[in-house]
């Protein structure tokens, strides 16, 4: 075996090694592509699930907003009723105050009448005593 044969064998061995390395690179590239495609498919699946959950969330959120608006409307109606009741109560209080003032005036008038009656009785008693004495 001469140097030429050894050089040819060495060259062939290197060429075979390079071919094997290229084949390994191609195989690893295919595996990496498959993994990337698998991850992409999983991402698409997750994206679909997130989209579905987002749609459900949006629907529930719209229902909650509608419920909140209905509750606000009821609260506004209740506030209007409460304001009307307060106005009625204020009017009733004013009437009660007026009635109390009338009652106070009547009591003062009654006291005046009673005082006048007492004075008249005293005068009548005095007249009767003078008549009996005479």
What does this structure look like?
This protein is 98% helix and 0% strand. The chain has 134 residues and is mostly helical. The longest helix has 131 residues, at 3-133. The relative contact order is 0.03. The mean pLDDT is 94.
Short overview:
Residues 63-104 form a coiled coil. By secondary structure, this protein is mainly α. 98% of the residues lie in helices and 0% in strands.
Which regions contain 5 or more consecutive residues with pLDDT less than 50?
Answer: none
Extended strand count: 0
- What fraction of residues sit in β-strands? under 5%
Amino- and carboxy-terminal Cα gap: 189 Å
Helix content: over 70%
Shape: rod-shaped
Class of secondary structure makeup? mainly alpha
What's the number of helices? 1
Largest sheet: none
Radius of gyration (Å): 56 Å
- What value does the average pLDDT take? 94
| Helix and strand sequence | H
Defining traits:
single chain, 134 residues, mainly alpha, 1 helix, 0% strand
Annotate the secondary structure layout.
Layout: H1 3-133
Coiled coil: 63-104
Keywords: Coiled coil
């Amino acid at each position: 075996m001469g140097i030429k044969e050894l050089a040819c064998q060495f060259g062939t061995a290197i060429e075979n090694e390079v071919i094997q390395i290229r084949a390994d690179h191609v195989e690893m590239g295919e595996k990496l592509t498959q993994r990337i495609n698998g991850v992409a498919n999983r991402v698409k699946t997750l994206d679909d699930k997130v989209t579905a959950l987002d749609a459900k969330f949006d629907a529930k959120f719209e229902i909650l907003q509608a419920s909140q608006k209905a509750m606000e409307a009821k609260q506004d109606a209740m506030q209007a009723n409460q304001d009307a009741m307060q106005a009625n109560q204020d009017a009733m209080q004013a009437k009660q105050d007026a009635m109390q003032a009338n009652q106070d005036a009547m009591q003062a008038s009654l006291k005046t009448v009673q005082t006048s009656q007492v004075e008249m009785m005293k005068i009548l008693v005095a007249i009767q005593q003078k008549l009996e004495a005479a």
